[in-house]
Design goal:
By secondary structure, the chain is an alpha/beta fold. The protein is 46% helix and 13% strand. The chain starts with 5 loop residues before the first strand and ends with a helix. Bound molecules: 2-(acetylamino)-2-deoxy-D-mannose. 2-(acetylamino)-2-deoxy-D-mannose binds next to β8.
């Protein structure tokens, strides 16, 4: 198995003024992340507004990114959906577009029983040759049983690991110490040092789109054993994230990117447009980067 350790941007999806996906800006943003030295891209997830795209749009995003990147970095496709069949259709496109792995959040809304969730993952994993990075995000889907799901597939070579978007770092450590070594990625950027110290192999995050250099500083300092430097860079990241939260993290990220010369439009409804105060704060943050 390829070594997937590292730091991945949860790639934003740019939109044009008319609301359609802006594929040219998508390619530019992907290049910006790769040129900054990130390990790879996680496409079509929460940050990519994956659930606000139609299935066909998410597939087209995979095709465009896959073709444009052409092997320059690792690629994960988030194919998670409420419908297993929809997830499978998207996984097949991810496979034919050159992605390294698929990822999926557990099916949500209906409070499916554990057995149904296991079957969902098994069905997606059987549908293509790609390995699976299970997306553990209990706050969003309300599902808290990912450890059981992961254990059910621990012998399956197609299980690559977990994207762990949760403050429960005990659970992160548990994922890392099962009977087989899995790749575990920290999902909350504001806790990257903590996640790494509990054994994470890297991180996947939204703020990596606009501050990859700070994220890389955290990651490389930690890897070099310079924990003080990693903490210092984390503090820097967290002052920025704290300032963003009151205005909406994704809206702020898009506005910061615009201020950095990478216009990616606004978030899709029902995300609200960014307030004037948010725009001013975004400008301030961009000037500090
Ligand atoms: O996937 C992102 N998760 C969500 C990663 O947005 C739900 C994070 O990067 C957060 O946006 C970030 C800010 O809370 O940590």
């Amino acid at each position: 198995m390829k070594n997937f350790q590292g730091v991945y941007a949860a790639l934003m999806t740019p939109f044009s003024a008319d609301g359609s996906v802006n594929y040219e800006a998508l390619k530019t943003l992907a290049d910006h992340c790769i040129d900054a030295g990130l390990t790879g891209l996680y496409v079509g997830g929460s940050t990519g507004e994956g659930f606000l795209l139609t299935e066909e749009e998410r597939m087209e995003v995979f095709r465009v990114v896959g073709q444009h990147v052409g092997g320059r970095c690792n690629l994960f496709a988030h194919v998670g959906a409420i419908s297993t069949d929809s997830a499978i259709r998207m996984a097949r496109v991810a496979e034919s577009s050159g992605f390294d792995a698929v990822s999926a959040v557990a099916p949500f809304y209906y409070s499916f029983p554990l057995e149904a969730i296991k079957t969902y993952y098994g069905d997606i994993m059987q549908a293509t040759s790609l390995p699976m990075l299970m997306y553990n995000f209990p706050n969003a889907g309300g599902f808290n049983g990912m450890l059981d799901v992961v254990n059910a597939f621990i012998q399956d070579e197609k299980l690559l690991g977990i994207k762990h978007t949760s403050q429960n770092l005990f659970e992160l450590e548990q994922f890392k110490h099962l009977s087989r070594d899995l790749f575990v990625f920290n999902g909350f950027d504001e806790m990257l040092v903590a996640g790494l110290s509990m054994g994470a192999d890297g991180g996947i995050g939204s703020t990596y789109n606009f501050m990859p250099h700070i994220i890389l500083e955290i990651y490389h300092s930690f890897q070099n054993g310079d924990i003080a430097a990693a903490q210092k860079a984390q503090e820097k990241a967290n002052r920025i994230i704290s300032a963003m939260i009151p205005f909406g993290v994704f809206q702020m990220e898009k506005e910061i990117l615009k201020n950095l010369g990478l216009p990616v439009g606004e978030c899709r409804k029902p995300f609200l447009p960014l307030s004037q105060a948010g725009k001013e704060k975004a400008k301030e943050i961009a000037a500090m980067l």
